[in-house]
Amino acid sequence: MISPLKIGDLVIDPPILQAPMAGFTNAAFRQIVRDFGGAGLLATEMVNARGFVWMDENEAEHPDRLWGVAEEPRPLAVQIWDNDPATMAKVGKRLVEEYQVSIVDINFGCPVRQVTQKAHSGSYLLRDPRRMFDIISQLVEACSPTPVTAKIRLGCTRDNVNCNEVAKVVEEAGAAALTVHGRTAQDMFRGNADWETISEIKSRLKSIPLIGNGDLDSAEKVVAAFEKYNVDGVMIARACLGRPWLFAQAAAALRGEPIPAEPTMSEQREVMLKHYRLVVSRFGEEKGTVLMRKYACCYAQGKPGARHFRSGVARVATTEEFYQIVDEHFPIEAATN
């Protein structure tokens, strides 16, 4: 049996976290995950702190990435990014006071060029631990008593793996937990996550929990992560996008219970259609259908006829077209396999 994860005064049980993923982990996706259960902590997409401030100052609607945050069940984390400590602190304070979020998480791990090279944020900041300290410490002060956490990678490049140094800075700055993705920014998502290096970080931390992330695509791998490596929690990312029931499977495995079977193709189809309806209810038919294309491709991944389905769904623009492609190409006929 695996103990619950404690982040500040917040108890995460089971200690399985859903990763913040830009463009994917919006309120509709979180609702689908919540329907299946098994995720101890859900998270939003990452929010651009500077963009949030601009919208606020210009009396514009707050970012779509905060859709649902005010109303949905807790615990819930909101991840933010920028390189300016004062801006980050201002946004963190608003998230705590106005949205009553459970955790404010800082993105120090995004390797995407738009965030790193253009905005000097995300994993770019791993080369500047002093700036990281300032961002974290100011956020901690602004958000207190709500816990502030940080997510990092092993380093910027394979020649500059500095996660041990950064981990100490994160804790000294007052963060309540550290999540580590087992690749460098240079790696993007290539190769395998280095869980050995993640595990070594634990000895550098005095009291805050360590959460491991990378390549967890089965309940068995989640169990193995706890058994083999020195982590207090795990975070599931890309593997859950087409399999939101993965959290429930992993949670059952951690309890020593039989792992629930994969839903049938017919059941998976209904999950996808519910997801579609949730997205359309928020964004309308035109925008919602376009946004759903990428989600639908995730649901089809690895299934019979996935290529034909992806090709068709990539062009849909209306509800009628979406349902037609689903009826014609989503592999419901494989339900009894």
TrEMBL record:
Designated name of the protein = tRNA-dihydrouridine synthase
This protein's gene is called dus_2
Which species does the entry assign this protein to?
Novipirellula galeiformis
Is Iron-sulfur set as a keyword in this record?
no
Coiled coil regions in record: none
Catalytic reaction annotation: a 5,6-dihydrouridine in tRNA + NADP(+) = a uridine in tRNA + NADPH + H(+); a 5,6-dihydrouridine in tRNA + NAD(+) = a uridine in tRNA + NADH + H(+)
Give the annotated active site: C110 (proton donor)
Question: Which family is annotated?
Answer: Belongs to the dus family.
Q: What does this protein do?
A: Catalyzes the synthesis of 5,6-dihydrouridine (D), a modified base found in the D-loop of most tRNAs, via the reduction of the C5-C6 double bond in target uridines.
- Please list the cofactors this protein needs: FMN
Task: Print the keywords alphabetically.
Answer: Flavoprotein, FMN, NADP, Nucleotide-binding, Oxidoreductase, RNA-binding, tRNA processing, tRNA-binding
All copies of the DUS-like FMN-binding domain together span 18-330
Binding-site residues, FMN: P20, M21, A22, Q79, K151, H181, A237, R238
Q: Which Pfam families match?
A: Dus
